[in-house]
Amino acid sequence: PAAGDASAPFDALVPQAPAASLSALEGREVSAWFGERKVLERVSLRMEAGQVTALIGPSGCGKSTFLRILNRMHELVPSASLAGEVLLDGEDIYDRGKKLQDARKHIGMVFQKPNPFPAMSIYDNVIAGLKLTGKRASRDEKDEIVERSLTAAGLWKEVKDRLRQPGGGLSGGQQQRLCIARSLAVKPKVLLMDEPCSALDPTSTRVIEETMSELQKEVTIVIVTHNMQQAQRVSQQCAFFLAAQGTPGAIVEHGDTEAMFSEPQDQRTYDYVNGRF
Ligand code: ADP
Ligand code: MG
């Protein structure tokens, strides 16, 4: 509606601003190599504060590599190198003098296969996430962190009476939510999720998706998924990655999720989201 139209709801005229405390993450011209082999070509993507951004595309197109660059895990591979910038609230996490630990603290990661410490208690699994801060927490602080993190991960009610039992005794879906809680213990600004539901049954998947929609109120989320329905259910922004025969992965198209699925601008996006690839 045109400005000045008295019937137009005010909200429609003003872009929805995210809560001030939420953070945006931006990759600028990110390229990546393993040895001589280039696997990502100038990927630029802004992951907006308070939104869920889905990264989609065929296997091998560099989605996981991009995600790992976003929290400085890529540099742990000896043969790996990269170019470009990653900005968290406008500050390059790769700036000289910036510590690896800081990037990890602000930018958490959850993997495809739930990886809690199986013999460690549920309580201690969550507290293990605090190692990144290097700070000592009192017993009361720890109790509070465990309750807050498990609540945010949608697991508190199910485990509050058995916090001393081993994490490995939980179901797959619960273990994944425990890993989410462990990431949340340090109050990260961004949560990266690499196919977090691929190893889970449909019911657990649904529970994680519901958890995400609550979670995005407090943390900016980036999720890699091969499930097109899931991308549409959980994300507001979407980026389609592709590595054409013998070329490095690159973003073909990105933008509003609904628009990308209903009216993709590129034929290759159309084919992929419609299951033709
Ligand atoms: P995706 O997550 O989209 O499936 P990846 O980021 O895992 O893609 O992989 C992108 C490309 O990088 C692939 O060709 C893959 O074989 C290669 N690659 C990934 N990890 C390594 C590694 N540690 N060493 C060498 N090549 C790798
Ligand atoms: Mg991957």
TrEMBL record:
Lineage, broadest ranks? Bacteria, Bacillati, Actinomycetota, Actinomycetes, Micrococcales
Q: Where is the ABC transporter domain?
A: 25-273
The Gene Ontology CC terms held by the record are:
membrane
Please verify whether the record's keywords include rRNA-binding.
no
Q: By what name is this protein known?
A: ABC transporter domain-containing protein
Q: What GO biological process terms does the UniProt entry carry, in alphabetical order?
A: phosphate ion transmembrane transport
Q: Which keywords does the record carry?
A: ATP-binding, Nucleotide-binding, Translocase, Transport
The Swiss-Prot or TrEMBL record annotates one GO molecular function as: phosphate transmembrane transporter activity
Native source organism of the sequence = Microbacterium album
Instruction: Specify first residue, last residue and whole-protein length for the fragment.
Output: 94 to 370 of 371
